[in-house]
Design brief:
This protein is α/β, with parallel strands linked by helices and about 550 residues long. It folds into two domains: about 230 residues, Periplasmic binding protein-like II (D-Maltodextrin-Binding Protein, domain 2), CATH 3.40.190; about 230 residues, D-Maltodextrin-Binding Protein, domain 2 (3-Layer(aba) Sandwich). The strands form five sheets. It has a four-stranded mixed β-sheet with strand order 2-1-3-12, sandwiched between helices. Strands 6-9-5-10 form a four-stranded mixed β-sheet. A three-stranded mixed β-sheet has the order 13-14-15, with helices on one face. A hairpin with a 2-residue loop joins β13 and β14.
Length: about 550
């Protein structure tokens, strides 16, 4: 996801006033206006009265969290684009907890602006969540300024599910800021090693009698056949040989076909060290190759302009020969109990590289350390922590991922669940209870597998097959299951502002030029030197140095 940092703004008063109205906390007895109290050791001060209530309001265990609806509410700001009214998770959680959440959601680009303005003006919600948050924001607004409050003391007292996540190897270390505190709700997932990759239509290959391509020129010929030979059989020349998830195109990964895959920030790993790769010959070769495909009409004309709904809509019309995606089910649904039409495209060799590489995203577990923070505006933050811990209860986790019991799945027994055949749902319900629409996509979900949990009729393990196919090509693979990952990091507070700026301006510039070159609006050969010079002017060398020093290189 792109993340854009908005600097402090002291002008445009009318804009600030409008933002204040949109982002201020609820203002009732529970949300906003309060501040957490901590002792000299940084532990939260929590009092239990004669009725067993914590700080006069919260039940320390069990449900509901507070006795009556209306006793407590908190405001939550998040980036999200699906309608709030259709997200069934919110009323489910309110019914369980008696806690009301005043959700203020905005599409990502709008949310970025409101987020920056709100923090600058001092008018922000009790909870801030989503992709707008960055790890260096934890340092600036948590460690330095105290706007985000430390949470580990609340976890220890009232969040057993969260504590269980923190015990997973590497999670607590990733979550803990340099000052020793944890400032955000952990978002830990069992994750594929390959996050986004190209998936190729095996059904179309079979229909046309084509072999799976193994190199870039064979791939070109396959895409030509997809474009001209009507593989979807509808008698129309409507096939789109190559497309990509508009929110996660990750075109830089394809530079691995030429020897050096690059992540969305332009970085890669070389001999176990973090290096910058979006200014290398390998990256330029990828650009030239993709531009040549576009010149032959083999790329989606809307590759750099379409939104998620458009991309999915075309996929479900059986128009794609290949698309970059998290998995092919993201753009082409398939029946439960059957295999998808698509297979992971092999890592391709090229005329300039006989030993292609791919950049792994995880080692099987992913920890997002800056997805939800509680601010100093929150009254009784212990209630909010307990609310999030309840989100991570097993039944809730399962329903947030798979849909509500009795509609898309069921609880068969303790720790045993059954996923229903979604093809039996009406098109309206299938859309309503899709993963993207059940609640805000950027909010944490407990997606960690447990040994004592059994899922009947699980989905097709497409990502597992992709991992298996791609692992031999991972950078740094030693053949014993070890390979290079882009390291997680914290930076010193004094560099946080610079890092925020570089983390936006440099990836945005790379994306802008990459799109222009591939789409034929500009010539990469003619502009390459100027592009590299501009990267340096944007602070590339400083960006590299900060990132490398943050991981101890």
């Amino acid at each position: 996801m792109k993340r854009k940092f908005i600097k402090r703004i002291s002008v445009f008063l009318s804009t600030l006033l409008m933002t204040q109205a949109l982002l201020t906390g609820c203002g009732n007895s529970g949300g906003g206006g309060g501040q957490a109290n901590f002792d000299e050791n940084g532990k939260p001060i929590l009092e239990v009265d004669e009725n067993g209530k914590v700080n006069g309001i919260m039940n320390p265990e069990g449900l509901p969290i507070v006795d009556n609806k209306g006793d407590y509410s908190f405001s939550l700001f998040v980036d999200n684009s699906t309608p709030l009214e259709g997200q069934y998770v919110w009323p489910m959680l309110e019914e369980q907890t008696n806690v009301t959440v005043d959700v203020k959601q905005y599409a990502y680009e709008i949310a970025q602006e409101k987020y920056g303005l709100a923090l600058s003006s001092g008018d922000y919600t009790d909870v801030i969540a989503g992709w707008c948050l960055k790890s260096n924001d934890i340092l600036t607004y948590g460690v330095d300024m105290g706007v985000f409050i430390p949470l580990e003391g609340y976890f220890e007292e009232y969040a057993p599910n969260i504590m269980e996540l923190l015990e997973i190897p590497g999670v607590r270390e990733t979550m803990t800021a340099p000052d020793g505190h944890i400032y955000s709700i952990p978002y830990v997932t069992e994750a594929p090693k390959v996050d986004f990759a190209p998936y190729i239509n095996q059904k179309w290959l079979d229909t046309l009698g084509l072999q799976m391509p193994t190199n870039t020129e064979e791939f070109r010929e396959v895409l030509k056949a997809f474009k001209t030979q009507d593989p979807n059989g509808n008698g129309k020349a409507d096939e789109i040989p190559f497309s990509a998830d508009p929110n996660n195109k990750n075109i830089g990964y394809l530079a691995g076909w030429f020897g050096m895959p690059v992540d969305p920030y332009g970085f890669t790993m070389i001999d176990g060290k973090l290096e910058f790769g979006a200014n290398t010959e390998e990256y330029k070769e990828m650009i030239k190759y993709m531009a040549s495909l576009n010149a032959e009409g083999l790329l989606d004309p809307e590759l750099f302009t379409q939104d998620l709904a458009t991309w999915k809509g075309k996929g479900n019309q059986d128009l794609y020969g290949v698309s970059i995606a998290y998995n092919s089910g993201d753009f082409k649904q398939f029946l439960a109990g059957t295999e998808p039409d698509y297979r992971p495209l092999p890592v391709l060799s090229s005329p300039t590289c006989s030993d292609p590489k791919w950049l792994a995203d995880t080692n099987g577990v992913s920890t997002l350390k800056n997805q939800v923070v509680i601010t100093d505006k929150a009254k009784n933050p212990e209630v909010i922590v307990r609310w999030w811990d309840n989100v991570y209860e097993l039944d809730n986790s399962f329903q947030i991922l798979n849909g509500p019991f009795g509609v898309t799945c069921e609880k068969v027994g303790e720790g045993q669940y059954k996923v229903w055949d979604r093809t039996q749902l009406s098109p309206e319900d299938d859309e309503k209870y899709s993963w993207a629409n059940m609640w805000c996509q950027s909010l944490p979900k407990n997606m960690v597998k447990k040994e004592n949990v059994e899922v009947l009729n699980p989905g097709y393990p497409e990502n597992d097959y992709t991992d298996e196919a791609y692992e031999p090509y991972f950078l740094g693979n030693d053949g014993n299951g070890n390979y290079d990952l882009i390291p997680s990091y914290w930076v010193e507070a004094e560099y946080a502002s610079k890092l925020s700026e570089y983390s936006v301006s440099i990836p945005n510039y790379i994306e802008e030029k990459t799109a222009a070159w591939i789409s034929g609006q500009a010539d990469v050969e003619a502009e390459w030197d100027a592009y590299c010079e501009q990267l340096d002017k944007l602070g590339l060398q400083d960006f590299i140095k900060i990132r490398q020093e943050a991981i101890g290189q």
